[in-house]
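Example 3.2
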Amino acid sequence: MLDSLKRIRLLATDILAEVVLHNRWYQVCLLGLVFLILGVQSLAQLPLGASSPKLIYDFGLGTILMSLGVVLVILIALQLYADLESGVLCTHLVRGLHRSEYLAGKLIGSWLAVAFVGCMATFVLSLLVGENAGGLTAEGIETLTPTMGVWIQSCLYLCFQWLVLGAVVVLLSVLSRSFLFAIVLSLLVWCVSMFVSAAEGMSESAKGISAIVSQILHYLLPRFDLSIFPGILWYDGPMVAGKFINFIGVEMLYAILLIVASILVFRRREL
């Protein structure tokens, strides 16, 4: 068990270093931070009054989640496809790396690279929101200001959303031999899953087949809800530890189930 964890850690570290130093998609992420700052600063110039910090907060978190999510999808799908086509995967397997360890290492390494950029972007966003709120306070306009706990939980929220998304990409990549199909289907699942909360609301009044479909969406699709969780943090402050751990636990459960399914499929796949 310890040897397996060590091999996963070494592979994840190698992938993290490769992505950070050589991957162009990752470098585009860093460049995207500049556009995020420019975009948020332009919002701050609009005459929105006390609602300006909240708009910056929502726009910033949405931009970070969506942009880095797309990059993560492309990053994982392309890496898995390239390793299969170039024979790198076979080399890893010959050296004693198990298929399950390979998938776990790929997911963790790519996820860490994206999560690092996401944390940097969230930090920059917190500075911009704080600066905007401070300017309004100086003008005598009262507005809500997120605490450090809110920003920490928001950052963790983004990171675990990407972890589940990465697990979805891994599963769809091992099911398909086309990286383009895996990318498109992963993005489609991601978009559909964002409407899970709407499906929950419809399921209360739906009957027959509609009710069944709504329940299937409720239980099977991963939770990628962009609006509810950040809004709760903004208005109510940081969640209590137990409730937040429960939220993280649900996300982890989805990720574990998806990666286990990926391993079971990948073991039966001919390379």
